[in-house]
Design goal:
Two copies of one chain form a homodimer.
Chain A: H1 6-10, E1 26-27, H2 39-46, H3 50-54, H4 62-72, E2 79-82, H5 85-96, E3 103-107, H6 112-119, E4 124-128, H7 134-141, E5 145-149, H8 161-170, E6 174-178, H9 190-195, E7 199-204, E8 217-220, H10 223-232, H11 240-251, H12 253-276, E9 279-280, E10 288-293, H13 298-307, E11 310-311, E12 323-327, H14 331-344
Parallel strand pairs in A: 1-11, 3-4, 3-5, 5-6, 6-7
Antiparallel strand pairs in A: 2-8, 7-8, 9-10, 10-12
């Protein structure tokens, strides 16, 4: 006998990456930005008043909407603020999926999608990326909610915007493009969110803006969709400090661009270094790489590294058993990792 | 044609209280604490490091769980941290309700419950408090989720813990006791959450701890229920600043007790003053009073006050049309309100 709905009772739940409490570790397992947030963010935090903690937040986070609209060149009514990108994912699955309304997505991808579908008791249509016609198959499935993570996690691959525009035009339901990692790509899909009445874009300040601890993401879509999503979100889903901090962060585009450029340069270096250590590493458009262990056992390396306080991500999932997802760190952190990998290789 | 589920499309959505952006107002409309949070909270905010913003939060908010467990005298595995009390309500409706699993609650009450039920496409069983046997009727309905707001909003009334213990023993489903306002009552139900495997308590730091802006609430229940609720919550639902700040707040019990005592004393004074102005004011166990306008029009008074930058809450709902919900402010704020009410009365 259980008090829970059956779908909840049967669910294993999403397992977030390990978050060690120590700070003297090399933490390359959950795709945090290795550099601190903008100094303007810290200035804002240290100027928070007791009055702003005492009163409820602005329900729509209007100062952020205004600032983001200016930076992105879109109207502010195209924006919904959320408690991290995950909150927007949750809102979308609650708004569009139920037992009669499936979600569709290509795999492997962010493993939260299947958990959110299960929480809605919603069927899923999973199309492997390795099928050459995966986009056509998603179009044919035409689910009430189709999700494409772009750049994709954990592979780091990227689909051109024009292909997703074609998909959006074919779908009868919503196309949610999860752009949590788009700050590290060469292209984004913002124009699709303006042009198509069925496209929602997800953005996050966790990665490109070094604010994983503050929980701030947002959605971009036409106002009619935004209005519907607002009905589903908690009234005060983002707190006052997060709104203030996120506004300061997105307003400092000079800092943001320099930060992102440094990570992309380091990513290219890491791809070369890992390949020299006999890993198979496809091009990444994100702030991590997915490295295939050709001559070694991925799970074993993951464990050996953890014993040295070096954390990377291992997924015990089909197609991922022989791979490690490694976040791009500072050159110093990455050097520690590379040296450890070289030692483990027995050279 | 809509992209949304029908229940979402048909829903009006929850309307949060008006949050004016100015600070030079008398804001008694959304039950914020009129006093600032503990000085230890502000010290914590000003010592936040960039490193703690950069990294993901602790998924379970363990430092808060430990601190709250000590203050409340319960094991820390009885606690789930949530993004305000509303997040726990959302989690519970998602965990226990669907189209075949109704929610039951006495009315009038917090109007979010019916919205959350509608988002789950769940039927509701609403039992008016004015029925003398409302507790028996809830027991007979024995819904998968029964919610009792205690002290109740917007009435300020309170049900003894022993009556809710009796109800918990009769129900086959969950009894969620929403104690968002319990800090201002003479009794709480924490023992029920320890004794009954089907009781969940909701607590909030928005009111008693002056932290509405930071969004922090928590649930108390036996570990088996907590484990199920954790599967439904977003992995990183509470941010690092909120966890730090909430921990500092709950650890400063001396400040908390003095704050609450001041509000309770002022509440008793306000009840007398409002009665002297011909309002009907029942005893309140919360940080607000529900005042019935006997000789005047509540909606009109609400509007006249707003024109003077004095905000109280008016609900255009059956049984509430002739009443105003007034949060307890500082003696200075309350004096401004009382003077305005006296003027409006034409004396």
């Amino acid at each position: 006998m259980t008090y829970f709905r059956n779908n909840i009772e049967e669910l294993a739940g999403y397992a977030p990456g390990f978050q060690p409490s120590q700070t003297d570790v090399v933490k390359l397992n959950t795709n945090e930005n290795p550099y601190p947030p903008s100094p303007k963010v810290m200035e804002k935090v240290h100027n928070i008043t007791s009055e702003s903690l005492r009163r409820y937040p602005a329900p729509l986070g209007d100062i952020f909407r205004t600032a983001a609209a200016e930076v992105l060149g879109i109207p502010s009514d195209h924006i919904i603020c959320t408690n991290g990108g995950d909150d927007l994912l949750t809102i979308c699955f609650r708004a569009f999926c139920d037992e009669d309304r499936p979600a569709a997505y290509p795999t492997p991808t962010y493993s939260l999608y299947s958990v959110l579908a299960a929480l809605q008791d919603s069927p899923v249509i999973e199309i492997p990326y390795e099928k050459p016609d995966w986009l056509d198959r998603l179009a044919q499935a035409s689910a009430p909610l189709t999700v494409v993570c772009n750049p994709n996690a954990p592979t780091g691959s990227h689909v051109p915007a024009r292909k997703l525009a074609e998909l959006a035009g074919q779908l009868e339901g919503i196309l949610l493009i999860d752009e949590a990692y788009v700050d590290f790509a060469e292209e984004n899909c913002i124009q699709l969110a303006r042009d198509f009445e069925n496209v929602i874009l997800l953005r996050s300040l966790s990665k490109g803006y070094s604010l994983a601890g503050i929980r701030f993401g947002f959605g971009i879509a036409q106002p009619k969709l935004i209005e519907g999503l607002l009905k589903v979100k908690d009234s005060y889903n983002v707190d006052t400090v997060a709104i203030e901090v996120a506004t300061a962060a997105i307003s400092d585009q000079d800092y943001f661009k320099a930060n992102v450029a440094a990570i992309k340069a380091e990513r290219e270096r890491m791809v070369q270094e890992l390949r020299a250590l006999d890993f198979e590493v496809p091009q990444s458009y994100s702030n991590f790489v997915l490295a295939r262990c050709v001559k070694t056992d991925a799970r074993q390396i993951h464990q050996n590294l953890a014993e040295k306080n070096i954390y990377v991500r291992y997924f015990d999932l089909p197609g991922l058993e022989d791979k490690l997802r490694i976040s791009i760190g500072t050159p110093e952190q990455d050097m520690v990792l590379l040296q450890a990998l070289q030692e483990l290789r027995g050279r």
